[in-house]
Amino acid sequence: MAEGASVVFKLYCLAVLTVMAASYTVLMRYTRTVEGVRYYSTTTVFVTECAKMFFTLCILLKEHKGSIRKVTQELKGNIVGKPMEMLKMSVPSIVYAIQNNMTFIGLSNLDAATYQVTYQMKIPCTALLSVMMLGRSLSSMQWIAVFVLTGGVILVQGIGGEAVSHTSGTEGSYVVGLTALTIAVFCSGFAGVYFEKLLKGSDTSLWVRNVQMYTWGMLSAFLGVVMHDWQNVRENGFLYGYTPLVWLVVLLGSGGGIYTSIVVKYTDNIMKGFAAAAAIVLSTVASIMFMGLVVGWMFVLGASLVIAAIFLYGLPKTNTEKLPARKSGT
Ligand code: C5P
Q1: Phi, psi of 24 (to 5 degrees)
Q2: Using one digit for the tens of pLDDT, what is the confidence trace for 210-247?
Q3: Cβ-Cβ contacts under 8 Å for 211 (sequence gap 6 or more)
Q4: From CA 81, how far away is CA 67, in angstroms rounded?
Q5: Would the CB of 216 count as within 6 Å of ligand 1?
Q6: What angle is formed at CA 150 by the lines to CA 146 and CA 154, rounded to 5 degrees?
Q7: CB distance 215 to ligand 1 below 6 Å
Q8: How far is residue 120's CA from residue 100's CA, in Å, rounded to a whole number?
Q9: Ligand 1: which residue has its CA nearest to atom 2?
Q10: Which is the closest atom of ligand 1 to the Cα of 269?
Q11: 52 CB under 6 A from ligand 1?
């Protein structure tokens, strides 16, 4: 994949991520709330990590023109040969594994509106962490754009979500859901920015970084299965309750993860937030068109704010492929 990607390529990646993220959230929530056999979400997180590893290895193989020997050599050099680098990647990977499990808990315990509104806090959280951890600077206009975006998504989600919410659950599950989601917000911001720092702070390729990341991801996700669902898995099987729709959730989750990494490489985590916001607007529009969702002026206002924020931030103009030079070298 070419260094210095074109604006068209960046927009393409943002668009694919947008569509995947939108369908992922809708489907994940559907499979967790529909009547019938309930699959174990920790196994889904693990299977998704395995799928990401598989796709990444296929891409590496393609980059090396099908030579398994070259891929093995490159991976050996970067996994066995660089234990410190490998160890550093464990940080975002484990934090992502926690986040992925927390979003399932959040989606299983909260109504759609509360889930979406709370999860949007990751936009300012990520912006703040990008400034603190990467030394990135945002103009006042861009800060305004970040908050306009957050407000816009909250309006869109608050209203759209209210109309499609299924259950509000018990008070206990509400607290569990909200706590899980708050943890997910911080994990998302921290892991995203940390991954960006490691990726852009060295010459190691994106795909090698991803193999390092998913190695830890598979390990920590498996630990999640053992800690949370081991008894159930032993009784009913690992893939208990896996309908074709659950496999689709795995496919969208893994595709979304791979595209997230590409988007972070060629743009940055803040822009990823803008893509996710566009995803929410698009998914609500899709619900209006295909599921008969009725929205009012709040949705129109929120969607307008999201669009305005995208222009205020100056999305296509900003080049963030490299990290800004830091005073002290890290
Ligand atoms: O909600 P958020 O955008 O933070 O989620 C990012 C998702 O992308 C996580 O599910 C994470 O596992 C995934 N990811 C990935 N590979 C990367 C970076 C993130 O699969 N290199």
Answers
A1: -60, -50
A2: 999 999 999 999 999 999 999 999 999 999 999 999 99
A3: 53, 56, 57, 60, 75, 78, 79
A4: 20
A5: no
A6: 170
A7: no
A8: 15
A9: 188
A10: 3
A11: yes
Is the CB of residue 257 below 6 angstroms from any atom belonging to ligand 1? yes
At 315 the pLDDT is: 57
Share of residues in the chain with pLDDT > 90 (%): 54
CA distance 103 to 110: 10
- Mean pLDDT on 36-50: 94
Q: Do the Cβ atoms of 138 and 127 come closer than 8 Å?
A: yes
Atom 3 of ligand 1, residue of closest alpha carbon: 188
Q: Cβ distance 188 to 124 under 8 Å?
A: no
Please say whether the beta carbons of 29 and 164 come within 8 A.
no
How remote is the CA of residue 2 from the centroid of ligand 1, in Å? 22
What confidence score (pLDDT) does residue 158 get? 65
Alpha carbon distance 293, 301 (integer Å): 17
Per-residue tokens: 289: 């068109």
Alpha-carbon span 227 to 65, nearest angstrom: 40
- Asked whether the predicted pLDDT for residue 258 surpasses 60, the reply is yes
- Model confidence at 320, pLDDT cuts 50, 70, 90, reads low
The percentage of residues in the chain with a pLDDT greater than 70, rounded to a whole number, is: 89
Query: Ligand 1 center to residue 188 CA distance, Å?
Result: 8
Q: Tens digit of pLDDT for each residue in 97-142?
A: 899 889 989 888 887 677 877 888 999 999 999 999 999 889 999 9
Amino acid symbol at 295? V
Question: Under a CB-based contact definition with an 8 Å cutoff, are residues 308 and 148 in contact?
Answer: yes
Cβ–Cβ < 8 Å for 111, 166: yes
Rounded CA gap, 310 and 11, in Å?
A: 13
Average pLDDT, the chain: 86
Amino acid in position 318: T
pLDDT score of 159 more than 80: no
pLDDT of residue 156: 82
Angle formed at CA 195 by CA 194 and CA 196, multiple of 5 degrees: 90
